Hints:
Layout: E1 2-10, E2 13-18, E3 21-29, H1 32-41, E4 46-51, H2 52-57, H3 63-72, E5 76-80, H4 86-94, E6 99-102, H5 105-108, H6 110-120, E7 125-132, E8 135-138, E9 143-148, H7 149-158, E10 163-168, H8 180-189, E11 193-197, H9 203-211, E12 216-219, H10 221-224, H11 230-238
Parallel strand pairs: 1-4, 1-12, 4-5, 5-6, 6-7, 7-10, 10-11, 11-12
Antiparallel strand pairs: 1-2, 2-3, 7-8, 8-9
Helix pairs in contact: 1-3
Amino acid sequence: MRLIPAIDIIEGKCVRLTQGQYHTVKVYHDDPLEVALEFENHGIEYLHLVDLEGAKESKSVNLNVLEKIARKTNLKIDFGGGMKSKESMVQAFSAGAHQVTIGSLAIKNELLVVDFLKEFGSQQIIIGADYKKGNIAINGWTENTQESISSFIHQWTEYGANYFIATNIHQDGTLRGPDFDTYQMILEQWNPFLIASGGVSHMKDLHQLKNIGLGGAIIGKAYYEKCISLNEMEDFILSG
């Protein structure tokens, strides 16, 4: 299972939100590159980089942060936030993204995202399934839809998507534990490469996610609040 620490960006700084609420922003580091280098120095290969301003404004705002981290590290970066057009996709890949995460657009313009899957390849695109009370939320988690997480995943597997990040918004940034039941349901029904996001609080959560077959797990506040250490993540990776 991939261990994927997260760096969320506002105004070029490393921040975290609680339950996707922008008024809860907390700055953890002024230089995301320094944080990324620490991850790499402890054997971590993957990074989840989110342009929170881009997600809210529907256009990329912090591509310079992506470019700097991609240039200075060998981390495989999945980049999200403001991916609304082919131009934004090309810009992200040109700046060094290994994969691009698409969220709101998968609801608002399905045909365009299907074209992206064909043009860029299903290995390069992650579909972001952010959900609240079982239904998908979009536009930086500010707008709820009537689309259930179950039907959303099913539909996009039919369209040929392989990679998904599933985030329970109510648990994101709360350190209350992941939404194991929903992840297990998704894996049993469609078996995509599923990345868990939201609620990881300690190493026991990561072991349980691995045991139920998750392809990856995103670690955010648990690291920044020192509930999980870099050394523990390194040991988890080395243990296979």
